[in-house]
């Protein structure tokens, strides 16, 4: 998608549309400057890769395939205040709680910090992984920066001095695709992975508190028709309600959302409550300030759903005026979303590929031994044949000598 449509559910304001194809282009002298660490110079598209809002909603930012970082101010009205460039294509971004910095993670494994107070200032390299980064978030007090990569690692570093690593949260068996510090529990970290699990951590110590296999909670049937392949899916989104009592988990290629509850006085455990069945695969979801759950679907007619927690369960609110307003706006702007319908999963190429080298090795060894035995049998036959011929020759020669001696005598 080349355009971004920004709406604030619950606020009666006009939607804001920004067209990346008309955004500022990188100066030619900057394109020819190779002092940025050797980033790729290939021309990208205007496709939006990441999008985020600050905690108060005062700022918004996006990055696109052309390596642009575009910053917006939302109050009193939406305004693009800067366009900066990143070294490599980005995978995740997060605003600091103080709303003075923006942290951006990229495919090479680096995290850069960009100033919000000086919106034209270039980014500063903060830390790096040896693997592609898929997620970045901050602790609520901005003390720690938490990063997740393709090699199953979650690293907790001090934000002011990221070379000081506080802890690692280790336990996933595939890439880590989603991070969330839930509201009301600033010491917790929720992580989702390509191993189909959600894990709960005490991130400052790296201690795992809980692990939940989503295949046991409504995600046991693949939407693919090929049932012979092993089921693999990634957690694409984890969000927490403003009051910290509810957590929603979205997985790729599944038309459902798994809900969890966090009870008062919880000792560090989430409880699965219900699975919300959806008519289409969800694109994204969010909680608004009233604690309502909004779900964006890849369907023009039923493009958004609204859920409210009532009587200990989540109930759909099809008659909500807010829902009608948002749905109608999405319907009129649906051309912005058409290119994103049915797009291939962004996680499919991140899975480990297993090779059964032992079976191939044993088969080749068997063939090699058979070949050696065949060659050995041929050599023995040749030796036996040569031996028999030599013996026959010796016997013939011995007979001739005996006959000659007899004649002479």
Automatic annotation (TrEMBL):
The keyword tRNA processing applies. It is found in: Nucleus. GO terms for cellular component: cytosol; nucleus; tRNA methyltransferase complex. Residues 399-409 have a biased composition (Polar residues). Pathway: tRNA modification; N(7)-methylguanine-tRNA biosynthesis. Residues 24-36 have a biased composition (Basic and acidic residues). Keywords: Nucleus, Repeat, tRNA processing, WD repeat. WD repeats lie at residues 169-211. It holds the Pfam family WD40. GO terms for biological process: tRNA (guanine-N7)-methylation. Residues 24-45, 366-409 are annotated as: Disordered. PANTHER family: TRNA (GUANINE-N(7)-)-METHYLTRANSFERASE NON-CATALYTIC SUBUNIT WDR4, WD40 REPEAT PROTEIN 4. Required for the formation of N(7)-methylguanine at position 46 (m7G46) in tRNA. In the complex, it is required to stabilize and induce conformational changes of the catalytic subunit. Belongs to the WD repeat TRM82 family. This is WD repeat-containing protein 4. It comes from Hemibagrus guttatus.
């Amino acid at each position: 998608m080349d355009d971004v449509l920004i709406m604030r559910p619950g606020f009666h304001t006009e939607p804001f549309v920004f067209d990346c194809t008309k955004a500022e282009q990188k100066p030619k002298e900057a394109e020819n400057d190779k002092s940025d660490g050797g980033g790729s110079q290939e021309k990208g598209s205007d496709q939006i890769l990441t999008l985020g809002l600050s905690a108060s909603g005062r700022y918004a930012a996006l990055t696109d395939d052309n390596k642009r970082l575009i910053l917006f101010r939302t109050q009193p009205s939406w305004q693009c205040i800067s366009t900066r460039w990143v070294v490599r294509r980005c995978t995740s971004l997060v605003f600091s709680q103080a709303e003075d910095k923006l942290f951006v993670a990229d495919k090479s494994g680096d995290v850069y910090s960009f100033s919000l107070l000086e919106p034209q200032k270039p980014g500063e390299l903060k830390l790096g992984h040896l693997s592609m980064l898929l997620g970045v978030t901050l602790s609520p007090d901005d003390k720690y920066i938490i990063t997740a990569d393709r090699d199953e690692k979650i690293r907790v570093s001090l934000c002011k001095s990221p070379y000081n690593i506080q802890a690692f949260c280790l336990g996933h068996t595939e890439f880590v695709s989603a991070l969330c510090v839930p509201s009301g529990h600033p010491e917790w970290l929720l992580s989702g992975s390509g191993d189909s699990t959600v894990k709960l951590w005490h991130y400052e110590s790296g201690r795992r508190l809980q692990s939940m296999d989503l295949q046991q909670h409504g995600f046991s049937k693949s939407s693919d028709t090929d049932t012979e392949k092993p089921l693999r899916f990634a957690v694409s989104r984890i969000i927490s309600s403003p009051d910290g009592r509810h957590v929603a988990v979205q997985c790729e290629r599944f038309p459902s959302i798994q809900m969890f509850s966090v009870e008062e006085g919880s000792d560090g455990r989430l409880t699965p409550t219900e699975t919300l069945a959806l008519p289409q695969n969800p694109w994204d979801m969010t909680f608004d300030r009233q604690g309502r759950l909004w779900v964006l679907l890849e369907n023009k007619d039923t493009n958004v759903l609204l859920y409210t927690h009532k009587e200990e369960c989540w109930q759909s609110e099809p008659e909500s005026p807010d829902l009608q307003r948002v749905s109608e706006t999405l319907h009129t702007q649906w051309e912005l979303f058409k290119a994103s319908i049915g797009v291939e999963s962004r996680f499919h190429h991140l899975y480990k590929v297993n090779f059964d080298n032992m079976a191939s090795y044993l088969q080749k060894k068997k063939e090699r031994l058979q070949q050696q035995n065949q060659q050995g049998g041929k050599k023995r036959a040749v030796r036996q044949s040569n031996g028999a011929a030599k013996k026959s020759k010796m016997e013939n020669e011995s007979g001739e000598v005996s006959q000659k001696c007899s004649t002479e005598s």
